[in-house]
Every structure is written in C-alpha cells, then in structure tokens.
C-alpha cells in the first residue's frame, strides 16, 4: 500500500488492487463486504465509493486484455452463448456471455437482438455457435448447434402432459435425440463409414418425422405439432455436433458461465451506470478466463497496474 491519499483515504498498491478486484468481481462479494474483508484481514481502509473508483481504473488498464479475449473467441472453432436480463440504473438491459473452454467474455448491452449479437461476433467468427432456441440467433451467419437439453426438456414436458402421454411420435423424437447423443460418445470406437451411416440414418429419420404437420383434430396431435414445429425450425442445427469433435450437443457451458453473473445480479441488482457495467464486464470476463486457464487474476491485475503506473 502506498502512502498517497486517494478518494477513499487509502491508495492501494498493485497487488492490493488485484485482491480487491478478485474479491469483488471473481468471488462476487458485494462492494461493502469487499471493503470489510480488506479492513478486517489486511487493515486496508477503503469505502465502497473508493472501491468503485479503483475497479474502474483497473478496468481501464485491462481494456486491451478484454478486447483480446473477444478476438481469441472469434478465432476459435466453437463459441457457446447465452444471455439474461441486467440492470443499469433500472431494468431493460441484457448481459451476454460468449465463451468456450478457455475464454469467457461478458458484455452488458442495451438491446437483446440479432444485430447486437452479430456485431459482437463479427464476420471474423467462422466457427460453430452453440445456443438455445431464442429467435434472435436464427438469422446469424455461420454454422450453429442448438441445445439438446432444451429440446429434451420440451419433449419430456409434452410427454408428461395429458395430451402428450403415450405419443409414439414424441417418444421417437426423444429417442432420436438420445441416439444422437449416444453416437457422439461412440465416435472414438466407430470407423468413419459406421459414423456416417449412423448420422445419415438420424438425418433421414428426422426429415421424415418433421416433414408433415401432425393431425390437428386431437389434443395429442396438437401437442405433437408444437414439438414438430420446434424441431423443424432448428432441423439444420440438430446434428451439427456430430460433424465437429469440439462441439457439444448442449449449451451447458454457457449456462454454467452465466450462473455466477446471475448470482452477482441478485446481490447487487446489476449496475448503477453504464460505466459501472463496463467495469463489471471487463473484470468479470478476465476473472472467469483466468479461472478457466489456471492463471492468477490477482497477478493479472497487479501487472496491469504496474504497467499503467510506469506509463503515467
């Protein structure tokens, strides 16, 4: 800790700033609890307002690393994406996550729409996009895989309903999805001819089942039609994961990376300002990425602040 006086009465050194950022943005402690830990454990006196200013400076220092993480994702063979509502002085904003096994990128945006998603991904991304069935993803360029967990949940719910119970049509659709999942696990043990033959069978059978509307004159037929339309809309994205070794059938990874952000939102109600939302996005992204890679977020912050101080 340096002896200079900052807005909070204490000017934290690089590693102390790293610790503060990690407590707040990585471990998701509130501003007040972060200040309390710093005071009780290390004797560092810092107000929530001072911490907010400090994390803003850290985010500025790490903006380049944040931008680089997005470029890394754009060059990767697969990106998982998901989104949730966010507050910036009030409701109406969206937190988007774009992630793969080694990198996570959060961004708070004003609009949850196709144009925003396309702008973030840009034309640079040529890999496979894994997502849920939100309609804004439908018009995006490139190859996509839709989450099997969502499809299977919808089918199971339909089969439990009074109208859908005993539907051989719905049961076969569910069986085909499970068969595709099994085929993915068996790929290492199958020769290419067997793999292709099995995939062709699944594609052909899906096409047969989804080609024609179900009978509308019964409640079961109406239930079947809802599921037929759901899967027919995503028919081109049902078996993508069988063609790319690095692509999974579900979007569990994006949902898992979004969960800490949801917890943070519950604790803090999002952000008060757009500047605060940017700070949160930068630091939460890099903290999550460090965790994925086994790197130290505290050290990343400390090194960035040392470089910033030298350049000042």
UniProtKB/TrEMBL annotation:
Superkingdom in the source lineage: Bacteria
InterPro entries xref list: Transposase-related, Transposase_IS66_central
Residues annotated as domain Transposase IS66 central: 15-278
PANTHER family linked: BLL1576 PROTEIN (PTHR33678:SF1)
Name the record gives this protein: IS66 family transposase
Protein source organism: Lyngbya confervoides BDU141951
């Amino acid at each position: 800790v340096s002896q200079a006086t900052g807005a909070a009465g204490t000017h934290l050194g690089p590693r102390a700033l790293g610790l503060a950022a990690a407590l707040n943005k990585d471990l998701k402690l509130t501003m007040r609890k972060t200040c309390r830990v710093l005071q009780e454990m290390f004797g560092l006196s810092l107000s929530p307002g001072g911490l907010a200013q400090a994390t803003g400076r850290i985010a500025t220092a790490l903006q380049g690393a944040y931008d680089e993480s997005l470029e890394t994702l754009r060059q990767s063979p697969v990106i998982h994406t998901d989104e949730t509502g966010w507050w910036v002085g009030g409701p109406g904003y969206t937190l988007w996550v774009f992630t793969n096994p080694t990198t996570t990128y959060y961004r708070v945006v004003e609009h949850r729409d196709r144009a925003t998603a396309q702008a973030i991904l840009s034309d640079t991304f040529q890999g496979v996009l894994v997502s849920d069935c939100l309609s804004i993803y439908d018009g995006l360029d490139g190859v996509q895989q839709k989450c099997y967990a969502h499809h299977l949940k919808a089918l199971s719910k339909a089969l439990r309903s009074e109208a859908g119970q005993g539907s051989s049509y719905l049961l076969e659709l569910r069986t085909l999805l499970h068969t595709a999942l099994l085929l993915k696990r068996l790929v290492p043990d199958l020769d290419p001819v067997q793999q292709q033959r099995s995939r062709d069978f699944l594609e052909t059978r899906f096409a047969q089942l989804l080609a024609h509307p179900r009978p509308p004159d019964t409640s079961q037929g109406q239930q079947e039609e809802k599921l037929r339309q759901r899967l027919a809309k995503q028919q081109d994205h049902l078996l993508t994961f069988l063609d790319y070794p690095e692509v999974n059938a579900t979007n569990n990874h994006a949902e898992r990376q979004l969960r800490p952000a949801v917890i943070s939102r519950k604790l803090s109600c999002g952000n008060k300002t757009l500047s605060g939302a940017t700070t949160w996005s930068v630091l939460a992204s890099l903290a999550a990425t460090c965790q994925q890679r086994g790197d130290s977020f505290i050290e990343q912050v400390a090194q960035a602040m040392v470089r910033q101080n030298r350049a000042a």
